[in-house]
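Slide 14.
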Amino acid sequence: MNEDIEHLMLKYEYALQKIETELKIIIKEYEFNNKYQPVEHIKTRIKTKESAIKKLEKKGYPISTENLKKHVHDMVGVRIVCSFLSDVYDIVNIIEKSENIKIKEKKDYIANPKESGYSSYHLIVLVPIYLENNIEYIETEIQIRTMAMDFWASLDHKIQYKFSDVIPDEVRKEMFDCSVAIKTLDNKMLGLNRIVNKYKN
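Slide 15: predicted structure.
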């Protein structure tokens, strides 16, 4: 059992290397064709075995490789931070067109933010890894967002950790109000970018 989980963790490492390479290629190709860099930075990570087991326990599932694969969809995580709102959808588009990535699920939390105010575009994708005897598809979660959204999400994450139980309504309201301000800022910056491009053209 322990060996099975260790082997699964190794497969997650392979998937991370594969998705990093694929994203680097398709984004570079986009930049070359459009003479424009839409991505500010990319962060990647693999959830630790301990964190994944805690997640299964919290959901009430027995600890097994099957349950890890079935119920923990963000073992491999990628966060792509873009300059402008329009860049987010451009990046989603080029990922969808990639022949080396299969889209399993899409969640547009920009058009439909979470109740907390959280905004981002999530893709659950399947990344093929080539093993000794077969090809296996590994789930990876890709989050694509603007710098402003990333700023809000980082602060929200820190604030949540300050409260072991329920977050006070006052704090929730302030964070939601900040998310509205972030959305306004993103739209204003998008408008400014369009003005700048008009003069460039």
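Speaker note: Residues 43 and 79 are 5 Å apart (CA to CA).
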